[in-house]
Amino acid sequence: MMNVNCRYKIKEDIEFILEAERINKLELSEMTRISRTTLDAIEKKGMATDEICEKLYSYIYGQKYRINSVKEELIREKYGMVLFHGSKCGLSDISVAGSRDNCDFGNGFYLGQTYNQALSFVCEYDKASVYSFKYSLEGMKCLEFACSLDWMIAICYFRGTIRNYAKSEKVRAVIDKVEKADVIIAPIADNKMFYVMSQFA
């Protein structure tokens, strides 16, 4: 079973920088030029305007904090084995309802090994969130791919470039394994890699 452990919000980021720099909100207000009243409002509501976010994160970056990497490290220290998921508009439960059939391995709930990886898929959306999941694979049917021919066949099949070969014995054998698995562990095929793969389809 998987459970949501962490959601990245500006309120938590402010708490992080206060603790990391060992400063109080008044000092943070002076350094970022964000009013104390605004910082208090963020603490209550957990929300801020784009202008305020830019001021805060510019300060954090200027202090040489790579907050995503630091948070990821802290989460791993606390929870051990975790994976990350980026959502365009937030999660109320774990579902494949928002997934597309033409993802690398078909419709599914996709997770990545790093926070930045998950963030890269949703960073352009205003209401995006990144979640961390503590997980166990006990009792699940797992299928693991390396960068191999079977891996390429599966991705090209679900992305629709080799559907003409769907009845091929080799293709069918790979897809049957995918469809019977509860969990698939595999490298990501980015668009550049997929373009190269599709030229051989």
Spell out the helices and strands N to C: EHHHHHEHEEHHEH
Strand numbers in spatial order across the main sheet:
1-3-2
Specify the biggest β-sheet. 3 strands, antiparallel
Broad structural category = alpha+beta
Residue-averaged pLDDT: 84
| Alpha-carbon distance between the two ends | 37 Å
Q: Tell me the helix content.
A: 40-55%
| Oligomeric assembly | single chain
- Uncertain segments are 1-8
The total beta strand count reads 5
Output the radius of gyration: 21 Å
Shape: elongated
**What proportion of the residues form beta strands (DSSP E)?**
5-15%
**Number of DSSP helical runs:** 9
Can you put this structure into words, describing what you see?
With 201 residues, this protein is α+β, with helices and mostly antiparallel strands. Among the domains are: 3-68; 140-201, no CATH class. The protein is 46% helix and 11% strand. It has helices at 10-21, 25-32, 36-45, 50-62, 67-79, 115-120, 149-158, 169-180, 191-198; strands spanning 3-7, 82-87, 129-134, 142-144, 183-185. The strands form 2 sheets. The protein has a 3-stranded antiparallel β-sheet. α7 (149-158) packs across α8 (169-180). The longest helix is centred in the N-terminal third of the chain and has 13 residues, at 50-62. The two termini are 37 Å apart. Residues 1-8 have low confidence and may be disordered.
